[in-house]
């Protein structure tokens, strides 16, 4: 990931918060296999367990997920993991998280530079975080370790999504959250046999909030107004993000 200084987020804690709020990540692997593509990627929702926000810590946290056993990427992963007595893939994996709100930025938003020089081009505003690390694979359906891992993973992911994503809490008129126990035990056992578990140790993490911080104050104001005028939820959210990042940039300059 290209981390231009003006856009880069230096706080690991802030990146952890971003991942928790945007748990759907794209798992990318590069595995040599006679049967499956070398590069593969899958969208997977993850549960984050933080360990340290110290950039020098060897492992900063763990991401827990699962994927369908019939997924060709899972088959390549199982093939590689079975060759390791530790069930840890020799190859690093990468997980990319992207914020749910992103949008094209038209040069017409630039109220200062465009009229003055015309030296502006379109771009795209977005937020993203990227994780690299080692993956431990739980794929032996007869293993009690795998069963326990998947039971915990499915429970924790359901809690995260039912409460954090859906807002289900059972109070103040909100619906009760769905629980794994709502489904028959036998059905859950069958589902567990059709997935594998993946636990990734976070060895490095980087991310950015690309929200027009590189532009001058007047242009940033034009971008904020332009997004507001879209009259959409995405536009309103991004207008707020650009404003927040602009204020952070200005505050940082004042401290210099």
Automatic annotation (TrEMBL):
This is Transcriptional regulator. It comes from the Eukaryota. InterPro entries: Split_barrel_FMN-bd, TR_PAI2-type.
């Amino acid at each position: 990931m290209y981390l231009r200084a003006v856009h880069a987020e230096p706080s690991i804690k802030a990146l952890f918060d971003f991942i928790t709020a945007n748990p759907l990540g794209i798992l990318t692997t590069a595995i040599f296999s006679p049967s499956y593509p070398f590069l593969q990627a899958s969208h997977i929702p993850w549960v984050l367990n933080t360990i340290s926000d110290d950039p020098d810590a060897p492992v900063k946290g763990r991401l827990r997920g699962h994927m369908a056993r019939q997924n060709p990427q899972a088959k390549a992963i199982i093939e590689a993991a079975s060759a390791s007595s530790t069930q840890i893939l020799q190859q690093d994996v990468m997980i990319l998280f992207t914020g749910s709100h992103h949008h094209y930025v038209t040069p017409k938003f630039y109220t200062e530079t465009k009229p003055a020089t015309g030296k502006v081009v379109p771009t795209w505003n977005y937020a993203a975080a990227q994780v690299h690390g080692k993956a431990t694979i739980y794929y032996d359906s007869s293993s009690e370790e795998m069963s326990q891992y998947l039971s915990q993973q499915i429970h924790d992911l359901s809690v995260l999504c039912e409460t954090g994503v859906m807002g289900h809490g059972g109070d103040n008129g909100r619906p009760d959250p769905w629980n794994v126990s709502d489904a028959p035990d036998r059905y859950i056992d069958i589902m567990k046999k059709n997935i594998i578990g993946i636990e990734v140790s976070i060895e490095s993490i980087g991310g950015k909030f690309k929200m027009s911080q590189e532009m001058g104050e007047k242009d940033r104001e034009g971008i904020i107004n332009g997004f507001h005028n879209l009259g959409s939820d995405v536009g309103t959210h991004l207008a707020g993000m650009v404003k927040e990042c602009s204020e952070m940039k200005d505050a940082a300059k004042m401290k210099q």
